[in-house]
């Protein structure tokens, strides 16, 4: 029985390690490609060549070696647009994810630990906020404040802070009932000091795992808004915009649609698997 338990535990650890390596590896490659996009990009992503439209990718008849992933209907380099579109996706994921994490976690920590009227006010605010459909709320905000990178980030923060607030509130309430919290208060530590020095470190693993999941959600939201032309300028390369353009010419130039779809799928999946892997990694039962 002990050998079976040991083998099962080892299998879980190997799967967890593989999940973390694969998801982290893709995100690392994507980050490096986005950072060094000017060096890796063979062409200007905005440069058009109407005579060179819909050139197929490498290894297909009629391909051009200078366009490894082909061109779209306006003759723009698909690889260059993928690289620069990855920049937009990662900026939105990082900035919106961190801002959402800080705001939602702070409110959830206050509500879960102090209880009383702070919990009542924050909980009612969460209930009201969650009554709005997220995607429609985002589209409404963008329509009101206007398209742009800042508007997208602001819309994601305004919508998704409730996810962090709910989870962190529940974790803070559970940790607040532990004996070590009572011991810290008996030792003379203030309530604010106990919250920051005792409860926050124990809630942090859950927050980190939730942050990676939120980054994947931010990438999806940005792609959706780009798809309906509510993101940044329609001339700037975004994965959602490329998918929207490729959808209209999928039978003539399938690569314009497929490549950004694959990048979007792998990025969101990697963020999701990284979040699940980190959550399992810090799970005390698995440890």
Task: Name the descriptors.
287 residues, mainly alpha, MetI-like fold, 10 helices, 73% helix, elongated
Notes on the structure:
The protein is mainly α and 287 residues long. It has a single domain, classed as MetI-like fold (Orthogonal Bundle). Helix content is 73%, strand content 0%. It contains ten helices and no strands. It is elongated and about 75 Å long. The model has no long low-confidence stretch (mean pLDDT 84).
* Largest sheet composition: none
The second-level CATH architecture is Orthogonal Bundle
Q: What order do the SSEs take from the amino end to the carboxyl end, as H and E?
A: HHHHHHHHHH
Given helix and strand content, the structural type is: mainly alpha
Mean pLDDT across residues: 84
What is the top-level CATH class? Mainly Alpha
Strand content: under 5%
The CATH homologous superfamily name equals: MetI-like
Shape by Cα distribution:
elongated
Q: How many individual β-strands?
A: 0
- How many domains in all? 1
Number of helical segments with 4 or more residues: 10
Provide the low-confidence segments as ranges: none
């Amino acid at each position: 029985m002990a050998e079976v338990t040991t083998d099962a535990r080892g299998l879980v650890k190997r799967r967890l390690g593989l999940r973390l390596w694969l998801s982290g590896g893709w995100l690392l490659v994507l980050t490096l490609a986005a950072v060094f996009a000017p060096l890796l990009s063979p062409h200007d992503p905005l440069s058009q060549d109407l005579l060179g439209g819909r050139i197929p990718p490498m290894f297909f008849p009629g391909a051009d070696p200078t366009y490894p992933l082909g061109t779209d209907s306006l003759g723009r380099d698909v690889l260059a647009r993928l690289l620069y579109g990855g920049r937009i996706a990662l900026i939105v994921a990082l900035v919106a994810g961190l801002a959402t994490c800080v705001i939602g976690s702070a409110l959830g920590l206050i509500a879960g630990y102090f209880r009383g009227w702070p919990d009542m006010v924050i909980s009612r605010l969460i209930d009201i906020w969650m009554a709005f459909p997220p995607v429609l709320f985002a589209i409404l905000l963008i329509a009101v404040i206007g398209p742009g990178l800042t508007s997208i980030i602001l819309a994601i923060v305004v919508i998704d802070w409730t996810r962090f607030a709910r989870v962190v509130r529940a974790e803070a309430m559970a940790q607040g009932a532990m004996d070590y919290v009572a011991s810290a208060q008996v030792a003379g530590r203030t309530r604010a000091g106990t919250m920051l020095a005792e409860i926050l470190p124990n809630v942090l693993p859950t927050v980190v795992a939730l942050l990676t999941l939120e980054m994947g959600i931010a990438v999806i939201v940005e792609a959706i808004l780009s798809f309906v032309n509510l993101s940044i300028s329609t001339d700037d390369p975004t994965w959602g915009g490329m998918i929207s353009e490729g959808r209209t010419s999928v039978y003539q130039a399938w690569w314009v649609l497929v490549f950004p779809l694959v990048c979007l799928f792998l990025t969101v999946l990697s963020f999701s698997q990284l979040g699940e892997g980190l959550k399992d990694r810090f799970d005390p039962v698995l440890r």
